[in-house]
């Protein structure tokens, strides 16, 4: 595949995509896709996702969007010829910016012509309108590039192209760790042709109007904390309040998507209170910081803080299970240690944490099949029965999953056990910690209702 026919259906891409998607799915505990009914058929599309988690955001669209969408990416990652060929195979097109040099900007004419081919072919394009990624639970100011591209494509077809822009909200409950949740939500399409008259009268006003409408549509499908000064406080407190959110979801549903929708409504209410009552907001921020400091000093995770020690009988039952299944954990760890831990070593010197998940996921796609193949080959060489290598190969991913489940269970059990011991040794301090958490919960609850 070359750039001149990047919009064409590609067999190699089609064969690789299921493996990429399987690897991507395996990185998360759950992936929830909502709003696919908002994606129209047989019309050119531009997907406009929020951008928080580097290449994982692009893979989210590969995983969930129909067809073979083409991505626009910054040009500096195409400098190496070999990498440029790989990126083109993966359906990425370079877009040139002023920082790339004024001479480089002339290449955009060729890229925009290719975008026109993609649109006329009723294919799809992915553009991250924020321009770059950042670990913030809010929509940052949008760049104008997506609007310019959309208007240029429509104008060349006298606004008869039928181009739609689909806002896509991506929400990770943890940017950096394996085994968490992701929600991909497709919003209502925005028809570019509806701005035709305004564009003819005043292209600049039309561009700003479309950019504003894209921003409003994105805020509806993502978590947007519109309080810059208290962004970190509200983001932390929404996690503290999450177990109590089930009381406010429809029919008491506790699945992550339903809880998240109620969280989004709560964030708006809390943001309004922060803006209206600055003194109370400052007090809440101070109390939250105090709560975090105490947890850090005691080396406790927030989720285990409760009104009393955790029940001892279930804890002892977990301890027995952890001990009994330790050999299974050992087997799974030994057989998965290299493909699992090599990516962790690879990210140690990566300065931008938003690339951690991307690097781990990318290396896992290569390392797990490689080491599974080598290990199975060694087992085949040293075993007499032909069925043993096949059983061993099938058991590798299962043993890795069970080892990880054992580790998570042991971590939770150890945290709860330590929490109980602290209750016995420092009862007054633990009561104060619980009272502090309750004061935060009660304040958030009151702010939701008034």
Can you describe this structure?
This protein has 450 residues and is of the alpha/beta class. Helix 1 crosses helix 2, helix 8 crosses helix 9 and helix 8 (231-245) crosses helix 15 (427-449). Helix content is 59%, strand content 9%. The chain folds into three domains: 3-221, 3-Layer(aba) Sandwich (Glycerol-3-phosphate (1)-acyltransferase), CATH 3.40.1130; 228-298; 312-434, no CATH class.
How would you sum up this structure in a few lines?
The chain has 450 residues and is an alpha/beta fold.
Keywords:
59% helix; eight-stranded mixed β-sheet; 450 residues; 8 strands; single chain; alpha/beta; Glycerol-3-phosphate (1)-acyltransferase; 15 helices; 3 domains; flat
What is the number of domains? 3
Helix content: 55-70%
Largest sheet: 8 strands, mixed
| Shape verdict | flat
- The total count of strands amounts to 8
H/E series: HEEHEHEHEHEEEHHHHHHHHHH
Percent of sequence in beta strands: 5-15%
Helix-strand blueprint:
Layout: H1 11-27, E1 30-34, E2 45-49, H2 55-64, E3 70-74, H3 81-89, E4 92-95, H4 107-120, E5 124-126, H5 145-155, E6 164-172, E7 181-186, E8 190-191, H6 196-201, H7 203-221, H8 231-245, H9 256-276, H10 278-298, H11 312-324, H12 326-346, H13 356-382, H14 387-425, H15 427-449
Parallel strand pairs: 1-7, 2-5, 2-6, 3-4, 3-5
Antiparallel strand pairs: 6-7, 6-8
């Amino acid at each position: 595949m070359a750039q001149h026919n990047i919009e064409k259906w590609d067999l190699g891409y089609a064969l690789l995509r299921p493996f990429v998607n399987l690897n991507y799915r395996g990185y998360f505990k759950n992936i929830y896709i909502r709003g696919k009914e908002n994606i129209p058929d047989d019309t050119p599309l531009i997907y406009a996702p929020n951008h928080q988690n580097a290449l994982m955001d692009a893979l989210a669209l590969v995983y969930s969007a129909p067809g073979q969408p083409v991505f626009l990416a910054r040009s500096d990652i195409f400098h190496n010829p070999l990498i440029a060929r790989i990126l083109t195979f993966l359906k990425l097109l370079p877009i040139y910016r002023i920082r790339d040099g004024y001479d480089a900007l002339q290449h955009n004419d060729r890229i925009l012509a290719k975008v026109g081919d993609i649109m006329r072919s009723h294919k799809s394009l992915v553009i991250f309108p924020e321009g770059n990624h950042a670990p913030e639970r809010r929509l940052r100011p949008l760049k104008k590039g997506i609007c310019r591209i959309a208007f240029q494509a429509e104008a060349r077809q006298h606004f008869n192209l039928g181009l739609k822009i689909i806002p896509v909200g991506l929400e990770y409950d943890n940017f950096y760790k394996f085994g968490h949740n992701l929600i991909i939500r497709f919003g209502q399409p925005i028809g570019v042709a509806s701005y035709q008259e305004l564009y003819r009268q005043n292209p600049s006003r039309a561009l700003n109007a479309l950019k504003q409408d894209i921003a409003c549509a994105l805020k509806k499908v993502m978590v947007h904390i519109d309080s810059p000064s208290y962004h970190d406080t509200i983001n932390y407190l929404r996690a503290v309040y999450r177990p109590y959110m089930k009381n406010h979801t429809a029919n008491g549903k506790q699945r992550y998507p339903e809880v998240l929708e109620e969280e989004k409504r709560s964030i708006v209410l809390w943001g309004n209170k922060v803006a209206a009552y600055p003194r109370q907001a400052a007090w809440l921020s101070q109390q939250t910081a105090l709560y975090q400091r105490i947890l850090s000093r005691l080396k406790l995770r927030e989720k285990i803080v409760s009104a009393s020690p955790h029940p001892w009988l279930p804890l002892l039952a977990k301890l027995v299970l952890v001990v009994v299944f330790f050999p299974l954990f050992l087997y799974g760890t030994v057989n998965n240690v290299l493909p699992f831990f090599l990516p962790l070593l690879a990210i140690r010197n990566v300065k931008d944490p938003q690339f951690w998940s991307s690097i781990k996921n990318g290396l896992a796609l290569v390392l797990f099949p490689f080491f599974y193949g080598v290990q199975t080959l060694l087992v085949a060489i040293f075993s007499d029965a032909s069925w043993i290598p096949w059983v061993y190969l099938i058991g590798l991913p299962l043993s890795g999953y069970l080892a990880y489940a054992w580790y998570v269970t042991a971590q939770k059990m150890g945290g709860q056990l330590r929490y109980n011991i602290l209750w016995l040794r420092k009862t007054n301090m633990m009561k104060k910690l619980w009272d502090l958490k309750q004061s935060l919960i009660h304040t958030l609850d009151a702010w939701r209702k008034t």
